[in-house]
Amino acid sequence: MSDDQLRLDQMLCFAIYACSREITKLYRPLLDEVGLTYPQYLVMLVLWEERSATVKHLGERLYLDSGTLTPLLKRLEQSGLVSRARSRDDERVVVISLTEQGAALKQRANKIPHELLCKSNLQPEEFLRLKGEFESLLHRMHHMRQTD
Amino acid sequence: MSDDQLRLDQMLCFAIYACSREITKLYRPLLDEVGLTYPQYLVMLVLWEERSATVKHLGERLYLDSGTLTPLLKRLEQSGLVSRARSRDDERVVVISLTEQGAALKQRANKIPHELLCKSNLQPEEFLRLKGEFESLLHRMHHMRQTD
DNA sequence: AACAATTAGATTGTGCACAATTGAATTTAG
DNA sequence: CTAAATTCAATTGTGCACAATCTAATTGTT
Q1: CB within 8 A of A67, min separation 6: which ones?
Q2: pTM for this structure?
Q3: Which of A67, A112, B33, B97 is a Cys-bridge partner for B52, taking CB atoms 3.0 to 4.6 Å apart?
Q4: Domain of B130?
């Protein structure tokens, strides 16, 4: 019985881990067209919503730290999509802002969610239900880890 | 309207991506005790089930390719948990086998799934329901990508 | 004012992921 | 039987993730 506990197909964690990677692979061809990686796309999503954001804020929205974000943001800067500048008010803070080119890319990215929904063959209501399930699990896991 | 489609909080993909990483972080302290990373743990799960497996077979079970597996398996070999050997029958194939030490590690790993279930605060029936949901989504995504 | 504690971001180092290419072994077709 | 196609693993190169450490700026305490 304790043997059975270790079977791969019983692992919820594996299903989610593999699922996440499969979804990223579905995105790739669409993101290639706009020249972004998947994590870069997530950063751009936040910036398209908020125009500019601190590294700290991006980290809180995406659950990423500066070790991941700093090099990623430097690459987005190299691509000409964002600018990075120390805040005048607080020299510790780095503010990331959309360049004109970065803002313009939004138009080309707009079709991506719809195309992916089509690719996935999910009904909108099932999509929403799954999103709810994952978000509730996500918040639960995150809260769990904070209060450990 | 097309603006709303690009909001981060509407993204199923992000919920899954973040969820997967949070779960891995819950595992880390438990896996540290047995000296494995999360992907190494997944490889060991397959080997504890099957005693030995080809690189190709491991890749099929875990949805990973040789570019990921080869260096990972070399590290497991360095740790003394597995051995790697070309097949006599077909020199292209590399067979990965548990060493005695690798097989013995199973005893120490047995408690991990239960500890994680406790950490997660999920009821067993909810755990099973979620696993079903995510597996069905996983297979759907994978199949989608194969028949694109 | 002075100094300890905290905070924000950068840096370093390890280990995945994965696309693309390579090379050797095997299978298939002509 | 042999040449082309396929298969399996390794290699190369890029880009995350993340722990740990570091530096500089700010805040809190006395």
Answers
A1: none
A2: 0.92
A3: B97
A4: 1-34+111-148
